[in-house]
Amino acid sequence: MMLRKSLPRLLCLGLTLITVANLLVFYSTGIFQNLVLGDLQKGLPLPLTEWSWAVGKRFSHLEEDLQNPKESMKLTIKQQENKDNLLKRVMHENHPNQKVMGAGTSQTKENNYKEKLFPDSRLFRKWGDHLSEDQQKKAEGLFQKFGYNVYLSDQLPLNRTIPDMRDSRCLQKRYPSQLPSLGVILIFMNEALSVIQRAITSIINRTPSQLLKEIILVDDFSSNGELKAILDEKIKLYNQKYPGLLRIVRHTQRKGLAQARNTGREVATADVVAILDAHIEVNVGWAEPILARIQEDRTVIVSPVFDNIRFDTFQFYKYNLGVDGFNWELWCRYDSLPKAWIDLRDVTAPVKSPSIMGILAANRLFLGEIGSLDGGMLVYGGENVELGLRVWLCGGRIEILPCSRVAHLERHHKPYALNLSMTLRRNAVRVAEIWMDEHKSMVYLAWNLPLQNSGINYGNISSRVALRKNLKCKTFDWYLENIYPRLKPIHSIVGYGRMKNPLDENVCLDQGPVPGYSPILHYCHSYRSQNVYYHLTGEFYVGPLISERTIDDHCLTDPGLGKNPTLEPCSKAARKKKHIYWDFKPGGAVINRDTSRCLEITKDNKGFSTLVLRACTVQVWTIQHTVGNWGARDT
Ligand SMILES: *[C@@H]1O[C@H](CO)[C@@H](O)[C@H](O)[C@H]1NC(C)=O
Ligand SMILES: *[C@@H]1O[C@H](CO)[C@@H](O)[C@H](O)[C@H]1NC(C)=O
Ligand SMILES: *[C@@H]1O[C@H](CO)[C@@H](O)[C@H](O)[C@H]1NC(C)=O
Ligand SMILES: [Mn+2]
């Protein structure tokens, strides 16, 4: 439970989808080759995000060891990966609390192995064994400040070679000789200078010069000193070599990701704009598929495929193709590939995607016509889901281009957004209010917010509502039916939030340990494992709301025997006629419709409460929020 608090939960908002991406990598390497993502999720007691995080954590070391020999690039600074090191690492990871073998006094062959000053820092798990104490301190300080290994980045060549991650069939593709011009927009806030320079260098070296019209840097009010005069000086040098190519625009106050992207688009003049983070390296042949596709159809907004640059080693890590989706909280994630695309049997074909992540390219004018990014999305989070929705609803399309690849540096932590939940939740409500019509309640339910007086200030939406009207955009219902059927709105929920029994107000109904199917009473907290959803039809969902067609929510069940309730995947349990239907009204008993037993609590002699099923006494339960008038909707 505590662990879950500190998780980097689905950081894909800026592309950093560590958790699910790990899953995709597993899938690609064949460890789970007979599974597809959809199946992986089936029957799991948690939504993909948290579950896959746990798996990712368990297997990621193994995974990287499998991946790296094949796909890692030859870094100029060689990572010493001899057997001793590997052994040491394995031992360290198996016994994280033990001193690493070989350190200190014992006579081992590892003469140059230095004591780790920061044994718990993620920076030094796979890197930095041979640094002096001063170097370690410097590297750790930079890591804390930036969320990635700036110490290493500063030593790597700006023009380093990176492995071509494209499918070989991409190399056979031919593109028109006449293509639109390209403007690349790099947005940043307190990025390391060497990382920005490497991005610029990769763009200059890997984009045909006759197509590359401009590179525009947008600084969202960095405080980092080296991004002022020193960066200006570097830009001057680039422009001596490539006259007029680079420009920089600096915000004079912090405006957030969405507005930084808009600033870049507004000052650009090229036919097509590619809006990228500044912590990327574009790969060979990245631009041509983008320009050709947008030339064919100006209403397509495209995304390249991302590979991962490791935050610690700066090594490359291949990600497989997936489409960009999201859940009802509007956390974005990767979804499995659509069957229609697989049936095409062309790995180079564009893939239709329900949404888009933070790196995209579009016809500059078209992007403006459909409203660019919503400047009212603050800080970070949800702005890309909003764009994806709007593009589909208002006359465009979103596609992923498998032959265009951009490597993206995934931060270990985001120094500027310590609580991603808070910013995403606010932005998600804004999206719901503008775009989701009668289904907007799903976002409130998923975030466990009251439908009225939520206390969330989502800003002034009048201009975006007007835009929606002017563009004659379709309804969210249409989107769910035609573009993203995976999300399943539910309108039978009449009560939700924390379930408490007045006999012990300190504890809440909780889904219990995961993986597991045993609901418990747990000290009340604000995490999603204590979300409960009661349906007018009698089901009680316990745990984070999923509400998707391919994954079941978990239903409170009376197994009929014994005194312990269980959680079962709802549709399967319904088919098997398990006892998942309950009668309940706020302040009333929770009575199983089939067995007539009640969900109650008992206290042991130490005062600990436990959940039981038994013949009803007179116990009652409360639920945190109600929808309308308990089913008699008042809206
Ligand atoms: C990188 O730049 C250096 C110095 O300009 C040059 O010697 C080297 O060949 C370049 N490397 C690549 C891979 O282009
Ligand atoms: C982060 O924000 C969420 C609200 O979305 C809140 O429940 C949680 O307590 C916050 N966490 C921290 C560490 O502030
Ligand atoms: C919202 O913005 C519009 C202009 O976009 C403005 O006319 C209106 O007064 C604003 N509403 C509020 C409550 O500030
Ligand atoms: Mn990013």
From TrEMBL:
Ricin B lectin domain sequence ranges: 496-616
Pfam families for this protein: Glycos_transf_2, Ricin_B_lectin
One GO term describing the cellular component: Golgi membrane
E.C. no: 2.4.1.-
Entry keyword Manganese: yes
Any one biological process term the GO annotation gives: protein O-linked glycosylation
The Glycosyltransferase 2-like domain, residue ranges: 184-321
Domain of life: Eukaryota
Membrane disposition: Single-pass type II membrane protein
Gene3D superfamilies given in the database record: 2.80.10.50, Spore Coat Polysaccharide Biosynthesis Protein SpsA, Chain A
Location(s), subcellular: Golgi apparatus membrane
CDD domains from the UniProt entry: pp-GalNAc-T
GO molecular function: carbohydrate binding; metal ion binding; polypeptide N-acetylgalactosaminyltransferase activity
Main enzyme class: transferase
Pathway: Protein modification; protein glycosylation
Family: Belongs to the glycosyltransferase 2 family. GalNAc-T subfamily.
UniProt protein name: Polypeptide N-acetylgalactosaminyltransferase
Organism: Erinaceus europaeus
